[in-house]
Amino acid sequence: MNYDLWKIFLDAVELGSLSKVAMLHNTNQPQISRQMNELEAQCGGRLFNRTGRGVELTDLGQHLLPKIRSWLNVTDQLNNEILHSTDTPIGTVRIASLPSTAHPLLSTLYKVLQEKYPLIKLSVREGQGVHLEKWLEDGSVDLAILYRFNPTPKQGDVYLTEADTYLVGCEGDELTRESEVDFKKVSELPLVTFCRPSNWRNFLDHMAYENGVELNIVFEADSISLQTHLVSESRMYTMLGPQALKKASQLLEPI
């Protein structure tokens, strides 16, 4: 079995597009298509249905997916065990991160690894919390950096730090000048926040229920850039963590 071809197969499953796979591997889409055709010829059937939106697994592809994913993971683990026997850390660590925390956290981590463990490579994927959870569950990544809302770690989680949540309004807004804002006041504000499915949205819904209020969400957007400009130009409010807030501030700095 060709490890590289099956790895491309798995990338196509996760990205849903051969053109995106081509970008990931720094090649062109026809080359990826030829490799998938070669793989399908070896399997004796089609693995993907090509659609206008990308690619979707056939029944054969669905049947093989868990077996291929397991085989790739076992192969990676065996390779790492062989390499680790030299007492020199080596290999690829697959990390999933929220867009707001990828920099400077992971860029700083890369610099540290280059100094101490230069044979370790990082593979970083960005997504919202629910995507990170899914990638952890299906083994697509080794670890994920995300927000948790329980005070006590569960299921092997390791808490790195405690982060505040900030209410963000337009420049000069009086409410956001306060050191703390009662959650019930937030329910009276026009809010822009992340789209569902979202762990953050679930947490906000829970907080609203606990406080006996209903949030006034007038706009949904996963883009921090869009949220920031809506807050600045349309007098909406949003709630962000410290890294997202820092990114939002940079987006509004004059060039």
Strand-and-helix sequence, N→C?
HHHEEHEHEHEEHEHEHEH
- Beta-strand segment tally: 9
Protein structure class = alpha/beta
> How does CATH name the architecture of the largest domain?
3-Layer(aba) Sandwich
Residue share in β-strands: 15-25%
Terminal Cα separation, in Å?
Answer: 52 Å
**Can you summarize the main beta sheet?**
3 strands, parallel
If strands are numbered along the chain, what order do they take across the biggest sheet? 4-3-5
- Outline, from the CA principal axes? globular
CATH homologous superfamily heading of the largest domain: Periplasmic binding protein-like II
Q: State the low-pLDDT regions, or none.
A: none
Number of helices: 10
Mean pLDDT: 87
Number of domains: 3
Helix content percent band: 40-55%
